[in-house]
């Protein structure tokens, strides 16, 4: 559990340390301070910006926890499969043991029967020897035979005695062979028992190890769930800062609704459309390649919910975690034909256009207003705009802001497979809309 906690903290430190000037804040070592700060009333614009940054930090930490939970669930599933396989193997071995025990019982019965036969033949031989001794009127013959070290020696001695009949030799030969067979069967029984004992011991050890590992994963799962619940509570506390800002704005934001979707860029080329990248892999937005510094416009009237500009314009490539992989970004809530939508634009240039104040934290937006410029920040393979659109049509602008304060940059709709499963094609609002479908753009189209 300590190793897991260390990994989570390390991940969060990497995110914050690589996030430029603002993201250099050491949230990981000062979470209590920022939780307290961002829960206070009367935050300045600077403090509100810091709290927005802290919210991003908590969001990524929560995402990592969810990934850890999924990984642990996968491990538990694998362990359960291992346990089932081991149990099946144990059943197979138990059947082998039962079959082998029957075989052993059969061999032991044979040994008993052979021993009875040997005892019977021993009696016959002794009686024959006694008769011969009486016939020869000499103890020398019997002493000669009795002095044999074993049956082989006895047989050799008997061979040298001409007076023994063919019948006597046959009886004694059978006696020797049966004795050898008994000894061989006894060895076979012992070896069978050792093999089965070893197999049973081995499988029992495997079973116990798997059970121990299952218990370990269950313990981790419980801790992860507890950590996740704690993180949700923390993010809820930070969300109060945004709620407070909403209250300061008068609690009512009603921009005039736009008639339709306006352009996001003056010019560019669509490099990713639909729900997958051209090379494969899930993609929840639309990418438009454009030169660094190209203006990005508000697609409709609305407000800026939050923005982040702590990343350099040119990032480190696809693995850059700055801004939670998004680089510099702006989150907007806009209204079109009386319906509300969330619009996230990311990988922006480090040039802040919108300047909220403590009295006006939610900057009003008008359609066509510049909200940022194209950059190459965060996890990016080249200068481009990545845009995601969220259908929040059942909410007001104020309710959209409140939902954001509780759930973060995905409005609770998830990323990866979870985000794909919240498409508007498969569920009602709130849901994800693919921007390329909304704008009618296709891959490679120049706009």
Task: Kindly list the characteristics that best describe this protein.
rod-shaped; alpha+beta; 447 residues; 8-stranded antiparallel sheet; 12% strand; single chain; two-stranded antiparallel ribbon
Topology:
Blueprint (H helix, E strand, L loop, with lengths): L1 H16 L13 H7 L7 H92 L3 H7 L4 H9 L6 H83 L20 E4 L13 E4 L5 E3 L4 E7 L19 E9 L2 E10 L15 E2 L4 E4 L10 E8 L5 H11 L8 H5 L10 E3 L1 H5 L8
Antiparallel strand pairs: 1-2, 2-9, 3-8, 4-5, 4-7, 5-6, 6-9, 9-10
Helix pairs in contact: 1-3, 3-6, 5-6, 6-7
Cα gyration radius (Å): 42 Å
| Strand segment tally | 10
Count of helical regions: 9
Shape: rod-shaped
* Termini separation: 51 Å
Biggest sheet, open or closed, and with what strands and sense? 8 strands, antiparallel
In round numbers, the mean pLDDT is 75
The run of helices and strands is HHHHHHEEEEEEEEEHHEH
Regions with pLDDT < 50 over 5+ consecutive residues? Answer: 1-23, 135-142
Task: Explain this structure.
It is a single chain. By secondary structure, the protein is of the alpha+beta class. Helix content is 53%, strand content 12%. It is built from nine helices and ten strands. It has helices at residues 2-17, 31-37, 45-136, 140-146, 151-159, 166-248, 397-407, 416-420, 435-439, and strands spanning 269-272, 286-289, 295-297, 302-308, 328-336, 339-348, 364-365, 370-373, 384-391, 431-433. The strands form two sheets. Strands 1, 2, 4, 5, 6, 7, 9 and 10 form an eight-stranded antiparallel β-sheet that branches. Strands 3-8 form a two-stranded antiparallel ribbon. It is rod-shaped and about 130 Å long. The two termini are 51 Å apart. Residues 1-23 and 135-142 have low confidence and may be disordered.
